[in-house]
Specification:
With 152 residues, the chain is α+β, with helices and mostly antiparallel strands. It folds into two domains: 41 residues, Arc Repressor Mutant, subunit A (Orthogonal Bundle), CATH 1.10.10; 75 residues, Alpha-Beta Plaits (2-Layer Sandwich), CATH 3.30.70.920. The chain contains five helices and four strands; from the N terminus they run αααβαββαβ. Strands 2-3-1-4 form a four-stranded antiparallel sheet, with helices on one face. A hairpin with a 6-residue loop joins β2 and β3. The radius of gyration is 20 Å and the shape is elongated. The protein starts with a helix and ends in a 13-residue tail after the last strand. Keywords: Activator, DNA-binding, Transcription, Transcription regulation. This is Lrp/AsnC ligand binding domain-containing protein. InterPro entries: ArsR-like_HTH, AsnC-type_HTH_dom, Dimeric_a/b-barrel, Tscrpt_reg_AsnC-like, Tscrpt_reg_AsnC/Lrp_C, WH-like_DNA-bd_sf, WH_DNA-bd_sf.
Length: 152
């Protein structure tokens, strides 16, 4: 499905504030509320809008440690990737997992409450994932930019 400039304006506005009512969104974009409702439904049905969520402050909620972990697997075959991916999907401390082309296989992003949890995560959780041969971890000292909106 192709999207037009109005669809892009809708998507930009919803990225900025997912709680906008159809009426407020219609006014911002310059459409009738009925047309707006139809467009938003179409964007959802087509998969352009995958959900709505609140952006939370991890530090205020006790998840002050942000860590990235490079993971190299024993075997890089499709079966190894599938088993690793399935195990990662079940691990709530891992927030993102990306298959990487380069010197390692996966890049994980995790948020943890403290150094004790970090030590447990690196010493017990990650090594227990299927096929892990080697890891390197990087602890974030300062988040300079955290953005989830796409530049439409």
């Amino acid at each position: 499905m192709k999207i037009d400039q109005i669809d892009r304006q809708i998507l930009m506005a919803l990225q900025e504030n997912g709680r906008l009512s159809n009426a407020a969104l219609a006014e911002q974009v310059g459409l009738a509320a009925t047309s707006m409702s139809d467009r938003v439904k179409r964007l959802q049905k087509s998969g352009f809008i995958t959900g709505y969520h609140a952006s939370l402050d991890p530090n205020l909620l006790g998840f002050g440690i942000l860590v990235f972990v490079e993971v190299l697997l024993d075997k890089s075959g499709a079966d190894g990737f599938e088993r690793f991916g399935a195990a990662v999907a079940k691990e709530p401390r891992i927030h993102e997992c990306h298959l990487i082309a380069g010197g390692f296989d996966y890049l994980l992003k995790a948020r943890l409450p403290d150094m004790v949890s970090y030590r447990t995560f690196l010493g017990e959780v990650i090594p227990a994932l299927p096929g892990v041969r080697e890891t390197r971890s990087f602890t974030v000292m300062e988040e300079v930019k955290r953005e989830s909106a796409l530049p439409l």
